[in-house]
Design a protein that fits this description.
The chain is an alpha/beta fold. It has eleven helices and eleven strands. α2 runs antiparallel to α9 and α4 packs across α11.
Length: about 325
């Protein structure tokens, strides 16, 4: 190959390479961020280097988790870990997985996300020019408390850190009160007694060292988070057919990879929390049923308020989660 031909070939290769920015609101060393780095490596391999994704975590770009959808919609980032809960103000009609006790296990979630992802995708594309490629979840959400709780009624009067409106509504119906606190403020608030507890899953509970500030985990399994691997539609359409296909297949495969990796990390985190001296309490079947029945009115009120898309999602997700 002559020098001129080699130069043209190298130039064509450089022009073919597309670089995307991926943002996740998880911290640099959190498990989901590590998994997204692996996902980016798999995309590069699957596309033969045509699509290169650089992963940015919380603090590395000027976005909060509430900004992710807007940043995607305006092509400030091309791909993201889009949590629907934090952007509820933009898409209240998509917050079905935030309904208390509608999906309470990983198996239920993955059945439901498979059935409902087309609705998420169509709605996000029509309203924001954002495409949903796949979905995954953190482990079920629990209530972590400074003081013991024996029955569901013991939550009455407790102040608990929440991260969405539905959690506040749920706690109100259970006699407790929700307090909105950002992740960085949770530990100091628990240390000072500003709140009596906090809602999160076992993985962040261990990563954030909850065992240093609370003693009990009330394992209600009351809701699942819904995280989407989402992309900007314009950037997606600018890819070649082969690259789009490879990205689609990789994202689809990573739905299962997230499931396996997060599941393993959850078991490890639970064991580690116990080893650190935390007491993990499982509600009785009666208490679980009482909590679900007490808060179920939230489901229909949400659907009535948020229109046809919400009603369709409620039908699909409630059916899928009734395993």
């Amino acid at each position: 190959m002559t020098a001129g031909v080699a130069f043209v070939a190298l130039t064509a290769q450089a022009q073919a390479e597309t670089k995307w920015s991926l943002f996740t609101p998880f911290a640099t060393n959190d498990k989901p961020t590590k998994l997204y780095r692996e996902f980016a490596e798999d995309v590069a391999k699957a596309t033969n280097g045509d699509l290169v994704i650089e992963v940015f975590s919380s603090g590395e770009l000027p976005y909060k988790n509430t900004d992710v959808l807007k940043a995607l919609a305006t092509n400030q980032i091309q791909i993201a870990d889009l949590g629907i809960g934090p952007v509820a103000g933009d898409v209240p009609e998509l917050t079905v997985f935030g309904l208390p006790f509608i999906c309470t296990s990983t198996d239920q979630f993955y059945k439901a996300i498979t059935d409902s992802l087309p609705i998420f995708d169509e709605h996000l594309r029509n309203k924001f020019k954002v495409r949903a490629l796949a979905g995954w979840t953190m482990p079920p959400q629990q209530v972590w408390l400074r003081e013991d709780v024996s029955v569901i009624g013991d939550l009455e009067g407790r102040k608990v850190r929440t991260w969405n409106k539905m959690q506040v509504e749920m706690l109100d119906l259970l006699g407790a009160s929700g307090v909105a606190i950002t992740p960085s403020e949770v530990i100091p608030a628990l240390q000072r007694g500003v709140v009596d507890g906090a809602i999160t899953a076992v993985i962040p509970a261990y990563d954030w060292k909850f065992y240093e500030v609370v003693k009990y985990g009330y394992m209600l399994n009351f809701t699942m988070t819904d995280q989407l691997i989402a992309v900007h539609e314009g950037a997606y359409q600018d890819l070649s057919d082969a690259t789009r296909s490879a990205l689609d297949e990789t994202a689809k495969a990573w739905q299962d990879k997230f499931r396996a990796a997060i599941g393993a990390a959850a078991k490890e985190a639970e064991a580690n929390l116990t080893a650190e001296g935390m007491i993990l309490l499982t509600p009785s079947d009666a208490d679980f049923a009482l909590a679900k029945e007490t808060t179920k009115a939230i489901w229909q009120a949400w659907a009535d308020k948020n229109g046809e898309t919400a009603k369709n999602l409620l039908d699909r997700v409630s059916a899928a989660c009734a395993l």
